[in-house]
Amino acid sequence: MTLTETILARASGRRHVAPGENVWVQADLLLTHDVCGPGTIGVFHREFGRDAKVWDRQKIVIIPDHYIFTADSLSNRNVDILRDFVREQGLPYFYDVIDDPQGHWKFDASRGQLKRQYGGRFAGVCHTAMPEKGHVRPGEVLFGTDSHTCMAGAFGEFATGIGNTDAGFVMGTGKLLLKVPETMRFYLEGELPRGVMAKDVILHVIGAIGFDGATYRAMQWDGPGASALSIDDRMTIANMAIEAGGKNGIFAADQKTFDFVDARCRANGTKADYQPAVAEGEQKFVYDEKFDLSKLEPTVAMHPDPGNRALAKTLGHIHLDRAYIGSCTGGKTSDFLAFAEVVKGRRVAIDTFGVPATPQVVDDLHKAQLGGQSAWSVLESAGVQMTENASCAACLGGPADTFGRVNKPGLNCISATNRNFPGRMGNKESKVFLASPYTVAASALTGRITDPREFL
Amino acid sequence: MASPTRLTGPVYVVNDNIDTDQIIPAEYLTLVPTNPDEYEKLGSYAMCGLPNALYPTRFVPADEMKTPYPIVIAGRNFGCGSSREHAPIALGAAGAQAVVAATYARIFFRNCVATGELFPFESATPLNEEFQTGDEATLDFEHETLTRSRDGRVFHLKPLGEVRPVVEAGGIFNYARQSGMIAAQA
Fold this sequence. Notes:
The complex is a heterodimer.
Chain A: H1 3-11, E1 22-26, E2 29-32, H2 37-48, E3 60-62, H3 73-89, E4 93-94, H4 126-132, E5 141-144, E6 158-161, H5 164-173, E7 175-179, E8 182-189, H6 198-209, E9 217-222, H7 224-228, H8 231-239, E10 248-251, H9 255-268, E11 287-292, E12 299-301, E13 309-311, E14 322-326, H10 327-330, H11 333-343, E15 351-355, H12 359-367, E16 369-370, E17 373-374, H13 375-381, E18 385-386, E19 412-415, E20 431-434, H14 437-446
Parallel strand pairs in A: 2-3, 2-5, 3-4, 5-6, 8-9, 8-11, 9-10, 14-15, 14-19, 15-18, 19-20
Antiparallel strand pairs in A: 1-7, 12-13, 16-17
Helix pairs in contact in A: 2-5, 6-8, 11-13, 11-14
Chain B: E1 6-13, H1 20-23, H2 36-44, E2 71-74, H3 86-94, E3 98-101, H4 106-115, E4 119-122, E5 136-140, E6 145-148, E7 154-156, H5 163-169, H6 172-178
Parallel strand pairs in B: 1-2, 2-3, 3-4
Antiparallel strand pairs in B: 1-5, 5-6, 6-7
Helix pairs in contact in B: 2-3, 4-5, 5-6
């Protein structure tokens, strides 16, 4: 069995499962946030009753992260709905925006968008926060009300996005009926050359298989090239399985994974025991291809979908109006450090926005030193508008006052995020181009799509 | 939703790869679908993320809450992208009853079934080139066909199979109760 089949067999109490079988899977964790949490809670109460209790208080993680730093009253209300539910149920893992468990969240626009407006428990973008806060463990099953839940596959777990109704069912029962997906194997060899990042790997692969090329399937990343990737790189890649239509993406857990997970579980006092999955016996793949990482070049997904692939070096004729770095896939510390490496001592030519995924990333960037200057200050000196208010922000548009949102038609934006469908970052008559932090940084310097190797 | 035996009405046609941001743009996700008035409002915004140049006719006319199009015809990969359940809900709340697409993104299809908001039919071949927005068609639920009124041409759809009784029951919770999988509501 493949990694995904092995985990689903165990979670459904069977010795063996095969692709296409429908099985009841026991969840280890359910994740929700401010956009889908209120609806999930609504379904839970409607279906299980006003006085119902969740199936296991220890297994629900609630992370407000989408529409936080906005004066939109419904958005602020939705964070309050989460807090009320957490109080009602006594849930331990709620990463609230404010510290007062009886309080109400209200964004203070008069204090501006850049300085931090959150309390000590706020965790930022849920998929990046989950591992930081000790909620990912190899071999487990994670359901989340967000399509990028698949990012946790970087840690050798089965993680997939579900809707509010399914999540309401999981909240009450801890179980979900799933079809076992076929597995596609992506066997990585070689090392990433200078200027090429994990984002280029996944954009290259989505371009190769088409952005519905993994629909209903598991994407399993194997080979020496996969083992050599850092944890952050694996997260970037697993995150975008959904951009190929995939049910999940998964890397086998190794010593790097165990070290990372053990340290985070210990630091946060979360459950520290887990049973990693090892592919057993013969593995059957519906697709099995080798990719030589050393042959890859900086890659861009052009408007209007993540599979519309081209090499950055061929796109110099595309003029840009803005650049953006942030999100679960592109707002990690390593992403900002790569960006800073390119823009250090230079000046961006277009409006450029930086939104760290989590408060931890904000702290890391203030501490990290690049030639006697903090990384944060390097970015600001280069003209990047950096906010400390870690959140999903303009990656998915959001309310009109969202930091970095594309509010005008006709703008071209290059972004280190994960989606570029029409209107994704705001105005539906704007265009988004997806690229690595290196490529976004180089393009921000020139105002046109630029191969970052020109600056490295 | 109880399935009619036949459904006749004008169709709304979209191309391949319509993602859920176009079905319901992110700025409207502040609406909570389980609140009845917010559910209705979600419907009024259904498909408003489609670019105007490609889709000059709105799915829901300006200043109205409901769509005149009970059937949506789409190409491949309908409902890709974000897992937001607001997408099938917005279509259902606007008054759409069925989508006929060549293929679906996984989570959207699942959300149609889980909520019981829409019948997600698959066509044997893409039909978005065969119809224009406003064409009248008849969806025959019993024989699983779509008939184009202007010339009577019949397009066969793939069987909905086990999905159908779940949508007919109004979603997975109702279905699970009716079939005794979970206890009746207290």
